[in-house]
Amino acid sequence: MIIDLTKLKNHFENSISLDTTYTFKEEEIKNTDIEELKPITLKGYLFKNALEQIEIDLLVTGTMILTCAKTLKPVLYPFSFKIEGEIEELFEEIGQSIRKNQNTIDILPIIWENIVTEVPMRVISDDLSDFQVKGDGWKVITEEEPKTNPELEKLKDLL
User: What is the model's pTM?
Assistant: First the structure.
């Protein structure tokens, strides 16, 4: 998502408004825990601060599809976060640098890095109707169940 900064740098405009959607390609989300990423909405603006540095104030919202940790079914996971700060510092945080005198900037790496940090360790589907808790020779043990050792269970009968 390349943004032209010429008008902002030459003081023709005080800010550059952003109100758009962006769709990530399938190969961009490859090798992540995200199965699918619905089009994200970007609302905000870029502006120059008192030190003549370019800052961003952006709200990113969207929905990602993740795999349920129990049923392995797809789960819709909505997210929303705000990106605020000086552009150069934000690029340094993600391990990239930008040239000071360039007239365009691609803010997609900053957005992508923030999306990746929004992915939870695991998600559980609201619909667990197909989730089996017992099978042939196995069962799911919950934390509420007391754990007993089968060998020690035999000793109970002796006492």
Answer: 0.75
Q: Among candidates 31, 90, 35, which has minimal Cα distance to 60?
A: 90
3-state secondary structure 15-32: EEEEEEEECCCHHHCCCC
Residues contacting 114, CB < 8 A, separation 6+: 60, 81, 83
Task: Say how far apart CA 153 and CA 79 lie, in whole Å.
Answer: 48
Query: pLDDT by residue (tens digit) across 65-121?
Result: 999 888 888 999 999 999 999 988 888 888 877 766 678 888 899 999 999 999 999
Cα Dmax for the chain: 90
Provide φ and ψ at 10, rounded to 5°: -90, 10
Any idea where the domains of the chain sit in the sequence?
2-130
Average pLDDT over residues 18-41: 91
40-66 b/e with 16+ CB inside 10 Å = b? Answer: bebebebbbeeeeebbbebebebebeb
Phi/psi of residue 28, each to 5°? -75, -30
Nearest to 110 by CA among 58, 65, 44, 35: 58
